[in-house]
């Protein structure tokens, strides 16, 4: 039997146990070939090949529920559940999603993208199962990185208390995106290495079972040994304290051992935690030996070489700097000048461009694990004592820390700068990762200052401005490269709440924010060729809004098109509308932003086109506002 003959878990079950290692090799080869063309999350998937095979071999999806935490490691599950043929479209527009997707397959029972949700979801399913008198297995698969997330710990607390049947698979590869960190990680390390202790525990228990229950000193002594052994075992295993039966650690690449352990877990009532030790990047040397274990690779990754293809490298050299790189460089410059600056990342050191900062300022760099809520409140704590923390966080993950931004940072008016990376469309990761809500969810928070630069040069000035400002600021910036402008040598402070007029015009105002400014400028040029003069405004601040600029537009009766790469509900367009209405003014305002639905994976260009954030649609919208005005003139 070969992989191409397996398009369902039923067919997998026809494979003999002896053939499984060969299927595992075929899966690895398929992943490597396929992802070298499309890109995607390589390292984690190479690490779960045997684990996924074992789960589908022994258990019965879709009746049994597999919940993949984060979901970036669900490619093998997709291959085994009939989607192998769709891999050429992986993470492409209208193609196979890079994460579990309920409308893609009945085997995807739980959608993910953000980490640490699987245990709570599993608890919900287990409770529903029991309340409805049903019988199926609930199996969340959670990584050691995802286990550092607060939600996962909240769920352990609940699951251990309720004692419902559930098999938690802890896939421990000692890696988050970067090497995993934290006390829990250290603790797992002790469990992993303490194999002799586990062997001793099994041997002593077996021995004691043989001691006959006779009276006298010997029996008392045996009971005392039993008690102290119980204490040793229990105090060594945090999970047992929490109400789980702990099984493992088991080698996640040895199919025989792994399946034996899973069978034992299946026979155990109540919540069981199976500690599976795997290697991220397993089977591909460039991944095994690289620090990030090739967590994800770009399109065109060349096999057998742990570097990108020639064409990609050349292109990268010629491209303007990535915003993330400008952030990392500016952070270092700010930290050199100000010893009060400390930077925090919730597990995204590399992704946030902070590796070099961590090298240069190890004492002032904090990787707190996948703990966005803690990261935000930790920043607040630092700020109360006169530090000037910078919280580097992706827009989509800042959603996790919403109450902390309101309650701990902004309400106390603390001097925290939030560097909101990946703001706007993120492309291939798709709907779970789009950074499109932060303007709306932060604009309503008192004390917040929210800005977004039109280019990478303005970005460094905004970071400088945010650092100088004594209160909460959010500087949002997109994924990817800048637009190729010259970078000023010195950083300067921008006036808070002031936009800039980039082009004069009397027919219509294009009021644009961040990435949309250059698109608006292009639209203005197109309109000029048709005789329509558009005024282009770089809003710079979503809060405070530059009301002077809007007052001027009101006084001229100039229609406005607002343009932003963020949710149209509650964004900068809403801010303009709110202000116009507060002035009892009658002015036409059209809001261009992201409509009220989740935009799926694809390229950012395809995503922008889908929602009308294009030169053509801006020009079309502006045209629709101008005829009456031009007739009057
Ligand atoms: C809430 C949240 N924060 C951050 C991330 C980014 N992220 C994706 S995968 C990952 C590491 C997950 O580590 P682990 O669960 O151990 O899986 P592994 O990659 O090691 O297989 C992180 C931090 C995320 N997806 N969700
Ligand atoms: C699964 C996950 O959340 C991350 O791996 C994410 O895909 C990283 O995104 P960037 O590539 O934008 O850093
Ligand atoms: Mg891990």
UniProtKB/TrEMBL annotation:
Its EC number is 2.2.1.7. Thiamine diphosphate binds at residues 72, 113-115, 145-146, 173, 284, 372. Binds 1 thiamine pyrophosphate per subunit. The lineage of its organism: Bacteria, Bacillati, Bacillota, Bacilli, Bacillales. SMART domains: Transket_pyr (SM00861). One of its GO terms (molecular function) is thiamine pyrophosphate binding. Gene3D superfamilies: 3.40.50.920, 3.40.50.970. Catalyzes the acyloin condensation reaction between C atoms 2 and 3 of pyruvate and glyceraldehyde 3-phosphate to yield 1-deoxy-D-xylulose-5-phosphate (DXP). GO terms for cellular component: cytosol. It comes from the Bacteria. Mg(2+) binds at residues 144, 173. GO terms for biological process: isopentenyl diphosphate biosynthetic process, methylerythritol 4-phosphate pathway; terpenoid biosynthetic process; thiamine biosynthetic process. PROSITE patterns: TRANSKETOLASE_1 (PS00801), TRANSKETOLASE_2 (PS00802). This is 1-deoxy-D-xylulose-5-phosphate synthase. Its cofactor is thiamine diphosphate; Mg(2+). It catalyses: D-glyceraldehyde 3-phosphate + pyruvate + H(+) = 1-deoxy-D-xylulose 5-phosphate + CO2.
